[in-house]
Amino acid sequence: MTTPTTNLTLANATGTWVIDASHTSLAFSARHAMVAKVRGSFGDYSGSFTIDGDNLAASSAELTIQTASIDTKSPDRDGHLKSADFLDVENFPTITFVSTAVKANGNDVVVTGDLTIHGVTTSVDVAYEFVGISQDPWGNTKIGFEGSTKISRKEFGLTWNAALETGGVLVGDEIKLNLDVEANKQA
User: Cβ(2)–Cβ(135) under 8 Å?
Assistant: First the structure.
């Protein structure tokens, strides 16, 4: 792959872009037993975004994640996360995000949108850094963003927990989301 073109700005990225799932990571972390972090990701998702270079505020994004694709490298924990105690994948097979506003500050972007988890929709802000645009050896135009946000799992009705003998709880409320996105420009 070639080096990203650094002289391009978001204003030059007008068009519709489809997320390349083989080069994108939708990861999360949560505090466990008050002392460590459990990290995981989702492996099955799709999404796209449209950038309006003349009016970045008119840009938009959407994402759908299959909840059953959660992976924390522990089959037992993944099974618990898929159960009714947490994501309840049988009744809530997807997590969705649909943007409602886009604000740009140079090449940094804040995408505000409706995040729906476990049937509950909450507005969240995701801060993204524009990484660049490049062309792969097969002539495909690629764009990259790195984003992050924090959410409260309780806001989405994910309240299962267990008290620890030493005080505190087994699962922290704050979930950190880290999104490394690569997308392909559509013709």
Answer: yes
